[in-house]
Amino acid sequence: DVKVTQSSRYLVKRTGEKVFLECVQDMDHENMFWYRQDPGLGLRLIYFSYDVKMKEKGDIPEGYSVSREKKERFSLILESASTNQTSMYLCASLDRLAMQPQHFGDGTRLSIL
Amino acid sequence: SQQGEEDPQALSIQEGENATMNCSYKTSINNLQWYRQNSGRGLVHLILIRSNEREKHSGRLRVTLDTSKKSSSLLITASRAADTASYFCATDGKGGSYIPTFGRGTSLIVHP
Question: How far is CA A71 from each of CA A7, B76, B86, rounded to the nearest angstrom?
């Protein structure tokens, strides 16, 4: 079974801090994704990566950056955290072979105070 | 922006009843997927249906797809309290992109 592991289930940070959310997958998937999930808004794509060192903006990239130095690891960075970035963050990976489902981590609930 | 939209937003039923959730989408797709999310957890893939399929079954789940109406439904038969979760449909991204686009989800509560 594919396992996607997010480093923290819960995280509390202060405004202005630089925040790192880490995600690791163990199935050699080319594609990895970061979403945020807010009540009533569903999942919104922040960034995705289709290969090492490659990244593409999703629907809501503002205030975020990402890093993919190794195939198995995809990091989401909040350069200067703000309260409106309080949310549930979900990481996913995907084998690019056609018709494959995404595999999700358990999420990180991030609170910015 | 969302491609798929689930309906209803919330559904409350008794154990043993059937639960039906619908998903409508806007542009042509190659496939549609349903996911489940337990409270505070990540999404788990349930079933994938291709655009040339009309119906698919997996255990107590039945998914239909009507490409002419750009809609899909997820039926959970003989529901259990453990089916309480949010359910999301996901379609191909715009222009045939392989990146799934998710709806806002249906919150299902099954009362024991």
Answer: 16, 37, 30
- Terminal C-alpha separation, chain B: 36
Q: Which residues of chain B neighbour A107 with C-beta distances below 8 Å? A: 40-42
Q: Which residue has the higher pLDDT, A98 or A74?
A: A74
* Nearest by Cα to A102 from B103, B33, B16, B76: B33
Q: Which two tokens stand for residue A101?
A: 């489902």
**Chain segment A75-91, per-residue pLDDT in tens:** 999 999 999 999 999 99
Reference B105, options A75, A42, A3; nearest CA is: A42
B31 touches chain A (CB under 8 A): yes
Chain A partners within 8 Å of B103 (Cβ)? 42
Contacts of A1 in chain B (CB under 8 A): none
Backbone angles phi, psi at B94, to 5 degrees: -65, 145
Residues B6-12, mean pLDDT to the nearest whole number:
91
Average pLDDT over residues B1-18: 85
Q: CA B75 to CA A64: how far, in whole Å?
A: 38
Contact A20, A82 (CB under 8 A): no
Q: pLDDT tens digit string along A32-67?
A: 999 999 988 889 999 999 999 999 999 999 999 999
Inter-chain CB pairs, A–B, below 8 Å: 48
Q: Can the peptide bond before residue B8 be classed as cis, meaning omega within 30 degrees of 0?
A: yes
Q: Per the CB < 8 Å rule, is B45 touching A102?
A: yes
